[in-house]
Amino acid sequence: MKVLFDFLKELRENNNREWFNENKQGYEASKEQILFFTELMIQEIHKFDADVPLIDPKDCLFRIFRDVRFSHDKSPYKTHFGSFIAKGGRKSDRAGYYIHLEPGNSFLGGGVWHPEAAPLKAIRTEILDHPEALKAVLDDEKFKKYYPSIEGEKLKTAPKGFPKDFEQVDLLRYKSYAFGFQVEDQTVLGDDFVSLAVDAFRELSKANRFLNDALDKWC
């Protein structure tokens, strides 16, 4: 990943089209690295999560070009590479696995981030019906080693249409059911990054299985 990190560090200091066009070779080499890593993760995840097919890694990789139409920051390029591995690739509304590579801010994770109203209601309904199943995942020591908590914003009270006196009401208040953990640069650049990612994603599959079962049942 050194080529990728070196390119992103330079891009951070030279985030303009002229520099980018002059360094297209570095971009293409970096893109090949993240695509190779994404393909490797797809193959490994497929072994323990049948919901993830052997898809083209290009369908999982997010574009490096920023949408600046509604942003005060007019920098044309992202300073990271990201891939979302799930059935349907990066545009999927299913629970999946996310890779974020950025010098000083790399992380691995996944789940469902800011789902639309219908899938969010489906997940909450499944939690209401089977809270013990999700709690078993969240309380699992191997899972907690990577993902100590659900990430993202929460409602202040129970969502509309759900009982406020539900014993596990806190689990219903999340707007996302997402998980993640930071990875230091030296780890990303080290020899054990692949095995770490596979192990972390294997643990994440426990939560993703619950989430995707909910989507299959209620959507």
UniProtKB/TrEMBL annotation:
InterPro entries from the UniProt entry: CHP02453, UCP028451
Domain of life per record: Bacteria
Xref: Pfam families: DUF2461 (PF09365)
Name of this chain's protein: TIGR02453 family protein
Gene source species: Sunxiuqinia dokdonensis
